[in-house]
Amino acid sequence: MAFASAPSCSIPLRVIHLRASLMRRLDQLRLTLSDQVESLPFGNETWMQTERELVAAEQALRQLRSLEC
Predict the structure, then answer these.
(1) What does pTM read for this prediction?
(2) Angle at alpha carbon of residue 25, lines to 23 and 29, rounded to 5°
(3) Which of 9, 19, 30, 61 could form a disulfide with 69 if both were Cys (CB 3.0 to 4.6 A apart)?
(4) From the centroid of its chain, how far is CA 33?
């Protein structure tokens, strides 16, 4: 009896680890940004750096996902 194998997708382990790290960082950045926006006095724009890093991490995660099959 022959068994048909399901199609497989070989995602490099480094990509899997990178994706997991990016997702953890995104969670951290979202929490930090939320706290910063709620607690900073008017005129303090330090939250903008966190926002830029958050956007960059989201873009990197999208690029990684596009490499997957």
Answers:
(1) 0.63
(2) 120
(3) 9
(4) 15
Q: Where are the domains of the chain?
A: 13-67
Give the contacts of 54 (CB within 8 A, at least 6 positions apart): 26, 29, 30, 33
From CA 47, how far away is CA 5, in angstroms rounded? 50
- In tens digits, the chain (69 residues) has pLDDT values of 555 555 566 778 888 899 999 999 999 999 998 988 888 777 778 888 889 999 999 999 999 888 775
Query: What 3-state DSSP class applies to 35?
Result: helix
